[in-house]
Design a protein that fits this description.
Strand content: 15-25%
Low-confidence stretches: 1-19
Radius of gyration: 18 Å
Structural class: alpha+beta
Order of helices and strands: HEEHEEEEEEHHEHE
Distance between the termini: 42 Å
Number of strands: 10
Strand order of the largest sheet: 3-4-8-6-9-2-1-10
Oligomer: single chain
């Protein structure tokens, strides 16, 4: 009887986890290079709710991907980018609030397609609170074991050895790719479920000395998919 009860309990946990995943809310971003659909994690409710609030308010309609680095990530969310002139430096707009960190490593990590919150550096932001508005989508690269060993050394430096890449995560970074050096230091709160090919195109565009695309890459409209 005990075995049956335990098995039933395990099934309930599995179903609950599946239900949590299936109830994740999604956001569609229409860009001038194609559409990207993002699924938001319930494990990071403050970031999820903040992002949904901004999307519903139309905050992201018209903003640019103002910082793009090939084989790394694409970043957006600066409201000043809506009226930005050519060559204008972006990314430093004042924000009225920040979002408390919700770092759920190793469950949520910087695999290719991950959505994460930008933030100020540890020197002025030791609590690793997130930007109210700015986010980035990971593209990254694929790694081999020696590369991941070097990444682990870098992570150790910034986390005092408290963040370790598990064998499972290493396998993801070797086969799918991402940006593992950011793990345990930034809040990951969603992932791309459609349009990763669009992310790939955006991360490969020509950029200037400040990593801003030479030709604007714009979020035309962002909307919650109910």
């Amino acid at each position: 009887m005990k075995k049956i009860i335990l098995c039933f309990f395990a099934v309930c946990i599995s179903l609950a986890a599946h239900s949590q995943d299936s109830l994740r809310q999604k956001v569609r971003m229409e860009t001038n290079m194609g559409n990207i659909v993002i699924e938001l994690y319930n494990e990071t409710p403050k970031h999820r709710d903040n992002f949904l609030k901004l999307v519903r308010a139309g905050f992201y309609d018209g903003v640019l991907f103002h910082r793009v680095i090939k084989d790394f990530m694409i970043q957006a969310g600066d409201p000043a980018s809506k009226q930005a002139e050519a060559n204008q430096l972006l990314g430093d707009s004042n924000e009225p609030y920040s979002v408390p960190a919700e770092i759920c490593f190793p469950k949520l990590f910087h695999k290719r397609g991950a959505l994460a919150a930008a933030r100020e550096g540890d020197d002025v932001n030791p609590e690793r609170k997130s930007s109210a508005f700015q986010f980035y989508i990971v593209y990254g690269q694929e790694f081999n074991e020696p590369m991941l060993d070097r990444v682990q050394q870098r992570i150790d430096k910034y986390t005092d050895g408290t963040v370790q890449l598990t064998p499972e995560l290493r396998e993801v970074y070797k086969t799918i790719g991402g940006t593992p050096h950011l793990d345990g230091q930034y809040t990951v709160y969603g992932e791309v479920v459609e349009g990763l090919d669009i992310v790939e195109k955006i991360q490969a565009v020509e950029t200037d000395a400040n990593d801003r695309p030479v030709e604007d890459v714009k979020i035309i409209k962002a909307e919650v998919i109910e």
